[in-house]
Amino acid sequence: MIQTYLFPVSYAFLAFPFAALLFTLPFLIVQYRRHGYIHKMRALLLYLLLLYLMNAFFLVILPLPASRHNTALTGGALQLMPLQFIHDIIRETSVSPSQPSSYLHLLKERAFLQVVFNVLMTVPFGMFLRYYFRARWGWCLILSFGLSLFFEVTQLTGLYGFFDHAYRVFDVDDLMANTLGGMLGFLLGEWFSRFLPRLEHLDKHLDITTKRVSYTRRGVAFFVDSIIWTGLLGVMEYLRVPVAFWVSSGVYFMLIPYLTNGRTPGKWLVRIHLAGAGKRISLWELLKRYSLLYWLYFGINYVLGGPVLWPQVPPWASVLISLMLLVINGWFFFHLVIRLFRKGPLFYEELSHTTHRITWPNRLRPPQSDTTDPTDGSES
């Protein structure tokens, strides 16, 4: 029976890296907006929660039927009699209620172990709710029941219609066991939290505005901005706006930050802004910064690597252009890697004397303390 449970767990661990990759972007955005930085403790717990939920889900749905056109369950797909598992244990095992000495056989019986595993499966869920989310017992009861109901409905509907028929029974006893497990985890969470730092105190003595803006944070902002800017560029090219590349980049990365004091939609999303020499960044500073990056560096790639120029040049010129792009992009790549490890500014930041700062409203700023290292437990 143990092998039956190890099979889905192994698949969950294999799929975890791909799920974690999809989870990372929304995780970073939420953490930057809610806490202002990434704390390793929060990150570890949330990724463990993701891994746990994947294991629980795979335990519920695997193994799958051999074909989408599976046959209906012979005994029906619904079991709505509460505590039916007690009758199953008595019927399927050698346990006699009148003979306590026979109770030890329960540890080897499938019907009993299935109930035990259903309880244990949601214990970590209750612990996460108590420790990380600081949920009260009422919410833990509702959410544990809701998680179990989701599992049972997934089975009853055959993965929501993917299979012709349900391939596992919707069992009301499973709902009860899973909910009980969540509540046991809630009780254990209070004991478990004594050995871990309280999450609500992680930011107690930290001034968010003094922290360095990491390249990870800037990368998230750049990713979001690139998607929006590409859409704007596509609209301008469709409307046949002259020099659409330069117009769109000028509007998005220079005019909008000037009007919003250094913020683009991507920077706003992760709570950062550009700062110059004065209290408010000037249009000239933005022009110097982004003309070097977008109009010069990206502009060269857009012109030399675009579809307009290539059909018009002879073969020898295309080879020369390819070598030129290789040198330019190779230099930028190594420049980026070196500055990434040294945590220094990029060339266009040095020449424009601009930098990123964290935008953190006073109403959200945690209390400060002169006795605490502001980099303790923070994102590197």
Short description:
This protein has 380 residues and is mainly α. It has helices spanning 2-34, 40-61, 84-92, 110-121, 123-131, 137-156, 158-161, 172-192, 215-238, 244-259, 265-269, 283-304, 315-342, 347-352, and strands at residues 78-79, 170-171, 272-275, 355-358. α9 (215-238) packs across α10 (244-259) and α10 (244-259) packs antiparallel against α12.
Percent helix: 55-70%
Q: Which structural class fits the helix and strand makeup?
A: mainly alpha
- Strand content range: under 5%
Tally of contiguous helical segments: 14
Structure description:
Helices cover 61% and strands 3% of the residues. It has 14 helices and four strands. The radius of gyration is 29 Å and the shape is elongated.
Task: Itemize the secondary structure elements and their pairings.
Blueprint: H1 2-34, H2 40-61, E1 78-79, H3 84-92, H4 110-121, H5 123-131, H6 137-156, H7 158-161, E2 170-171, H8 172-192, H9 215-238, H10 244-259, H11 265-269, E3 272-275, H12 283-304, H13 315-342, H14 347-352, E4 355-358
Parallel strand pairs: 1-2
Antiparallel strand pairs: 3-4
Helix pairs in contact: 1-2, 3-4, 4-8, 5-8, 6-8, 9-10, 10-12, 12-13
